[in-house]
From TrEMBL:
The lineage of its organism: Bacteria, Pseudomonadati, Pseudomonadota, Alphaproteobacteria, Rhodobacterales. GO terms for molecular function: aminopeptidase activity. Pfam families: Peptidase_M17, Peptidase_M17_N_1. InterPro entries: Leucine_aapep/pepB, Macro_dom-like, Peptidase_M17_C, Peptidase_M17_N_1. Belongs to the peptidase M17 family. This is Leucyl aminopeptidase. It comes from the Bacteria. Residues 308-315 form the Cytosol aminopeptidase domain. Transmembrane segments: none annotated. Keywords: Aminopeptidase, Hydrolase, Manganese, Protease.
Length: 461
C-alpha cells in the first residue's frame, strides 16, 4: 500500500494528462515514432484510459492518461486514480495544465488509489509511483490519505478482530503516537461514571462496553468529535434479518471516521484543543439485553423509551454528547452510521449533515466542493420535535411511521447538546458498495476532508 509521493528523481517518466479535446494537439507535439504509436494504438483519451509509449531503445519514454470529456469528469471524482491501476510499477511525474483544486484532487486521488486492505490477503504486485506535482501541499495530502487509510482499515476489519477492546487499542495507538491523553471507562464503571445508556446498549455482549476519551492540544479553540462505535449490531432483541446484518461490522464507521480526522488534525498540528469521544459497544442478544418498552435514564437525566432496540446508536451517542456538552466546547461534531433513512434520501455517496450554525454549514459545503468530499445539508426541522416525544418518557428512540428518520434521529441527538454554542451531526454510510476511482469496495471515510478544510474558517484558526 503506497500512500505517499515518490521523491523527485531524474529517471521518472512524464505522465501526460490529456482529455479528448486536447488529444490531437498533444499528438502533434510528439516525435514521429511516438505519434505513430499513439495513432496506431487507438487511444482516445477516455477517462482513466492509459497508454505507455515506447522509445527507440525499446523502453518507455512517456505515458498518457485519459481525462475523457468535461461531462465524464463531472460524473466521476478522481479520474487520475482510475488511470493509476493501469500503469506499470514505475515512477512518473505529471505533465498537465491542471492547477488549484483540480490538481489537488488529481494528486489526492492518486494517493487514495494506493490503498488496499491487506490484513487477510496480501497484494504484492508492484505499484506505480508519482512524484509530488509542483503546486500541491504534499505533506497535507499525505496526511489526509493516511487518515483516510486508518478509517478504511478500521471499518474493513471484521468484528471478530474489531470489537470494543480492539477499537480501544486502535485509539490508544493513535493517541500515543501524538502524545495525546487517553482515558477509558469500561463495563460496570460506566454506571458509576453516569453513562447508563452506553452500558445498557452494550451490557448483553461478552465484550464489555466502554467510553474512549482522547484529549490533545493545549491552546486554541476547543473542538470535540464524537463517533458512534457500535462494533457490531445484531439489532438486539429487535433482531435484524440476515441480509441487514451482513454489513454491520461497519456500524463503527463514525468512530473510524473521527479517528481518521483526528489523525489528520494532529499530523498537521492544527492550533486547537481536540477531544475525541467514542462510545464503543456491541449490540448483542442475551438475557440481560435491553427490551422494547424499557425506559432508560440518560446521563443528561432525560428519560428515553426504547421502542426499537435496533435504534441503539443514538443512545450511546446521547450519553457521549452529554459528556461533551458539559465542557461547552466551541464546536461539537458527531459522526455516525445512524439511519437507513439517510441512505434512502441521498444514497451511499453523499454525507448528509445537520448544523445549528448556518455559517458552519456554508463553510462545510464550500469546503466539500474544494476537496471532492460531497455532503448534503439537512434541516433540524423543529416541527418534527413532537415525533420524538412519546407519552410516558421524555424521548422516543424510534418514532413510529418511519418518515423523516434521519431528521428525527438528528433532533434526538440535538437534545443532548444544549450548552455548547454550535453542533453538527453527520449521518454517514461509511461504505463504498461498488469500486470507484480512489475508493475500492469497502469501508470509506465521508465528511472528514470537508471538515478538515472548513475548520480554519469555522474555528478562526
Amino acid at each position: 500500500m503506497s500512500l505517499t509521493f515518490a521523491p523527485p528523481q531524474d529517471q521518472s517518466l512524464p505522465l501526460h494528462l490529456v482529455d479528448k479535446a486536447g488529444l490531437a494537439a498533444l499528438v502533434e507535439r510528439l516525435d514521429p515514432a511516438q505519434r505513430a504509436w499513439v495513432l496506431a494504438s487507438g487511444f482516445e483519451a477516455e477517462l482513466g484510459a492509459v497508454l505507455m509509449v515506447p522509445g527507440h531503445d525499446g523502453g518507455h519514454t512517456l505515458a498518457l492518461a485519459g481525462q475523457g470529456t468535461e461531462a465524464a469528469r463531472a460524473r466521476t471524482r478522481f479520474g487520475l486514480a482510475r488511470a493509476r491501476a493501469g500503469l506499470p510499477g514505475k515512477v512518473f511525474h505529471l505533465v498537465t495544465d491542471l492547477a488549484g483544486e483540480a490538481l489537488n484532487e488529481a494528486a489526492l486521488g492518486w494517493l487514495l488509489a494506493g490503498y488496499h486492505f491487506g490484513r487477510y490477503k496480501n497484494k504484492p504486485a508492484p505499484e506505480a509511483q508519482l512524484v509530488a506535482p509542483a503546486g500541491v501541499d504534499a505533506t497535507r495530502l499525505e496526511a489526509i490519505a493516511a487518515g483516510e487509510a486508518l478509517t478504511r482499515d478500521l471499518i474493513n476489519t471484521p468484528a471478530s478482530d474489531m470489537g470494543p477492546d480492539e477499537l480501544e487499542d486502535a485509539a490508544r495507538k493513535l493517541a500515543e503516537s501524538f502524545g495525546a491523553h487517553v482515558a477509558v471507562t469500561t463495563g460496570e464503571q460506566l454506571l458509576t461514571a453516569n453513562f447508563p445508556m452506553i452500558h445498557a446498549v452494550g451490557r448483553a455482549s461478552t465484550r464489555a462496553p466502554r467510553l474512549i476519551d482522547i484529549a490533545w492540544g493545549e491552546k486554541g479553540p476547543r473542538l470535540t468529535l464524537v463517533g458512534k462505535g457500535v462494533c457490531f449490531d445484531t439489532g438486539g432483541l429487535n433482531l435484524k434479518p440476515g441480509n441487514s446484518m451482513g454489513l454491520m461490522k461497519k456500524d463503527m464507521g463514525g468512530a473510524a471516521t473521527v479517528l481518521g480526522l483526528a489523525q489528520m488534525i494532529m499530523t498537521l498540528g492544527l492550533d486547537l484543543q481536540l477531544r475525541v469521544l467514542i462510545p464503543a459497544v456491541e449490540n448483542s442478544v442475551a438475557g440481560d439485553a435491553m427490551r422494547p418498552g424499557d425506559i432508560l435514564t440518560s446521563r443528561k437525566t432525560l428519560t428515553v423509551e426504547i421502542n426499537n432496540t435496533d435504534a441503539e446508536g443514538r443512545l450511546v451517542l446521547a450519553d457521549a454528547l452529554a459528556c461533551a456538552d458539559e465542557e461547552t466546547p466551541d464546536l461539537v461534531i458527531s459522526m455516525a452510521t445512524l439511519t437507513g433513512a439517510a441512505r434512502v434520501a441521498v444514497g451511499p455517496d453523499l454525507a448528509p449533515f445537520y448544523a445549528t450554525s448556518p455559517e458552519d454549514a456554508a463553510a462545510v459545503k464550500a469546503a466539500a466542493g474544494r476537496v471532492a468530499d460531497p455532503v448534503w445539508e439537512m434541516p433540524f426541522w423543529t416541527p418534527y420535535e413532537a415525533r420524538i416525544e412519546p407519552g410516558i418518557a421524555d424521548l422516543d428512540n424510534a418514532p413510529a411511521g418511519g418518515m423523516a428518520g434521519s431528521i428525527t434521529a438528528a433532533l434526538f441527538l440535538k437534545r443532548f447538546v444544549t450548552a455548547s454554542p454550535r453542533y453538527m451531526h453527520f449521518d454517514i454510510y461509511g461504505w463504498q458498495p461498488e469500486a470507484a476511482p480512489a475508493r475500492p469496495k469497502g469501508g470509506v471515510g465521508q465528511g472528514a476532508r470537508a471538515l478538515l478544510d472548513a475548520l480554519p474558517e469555522m474555528l478562526g484558526l
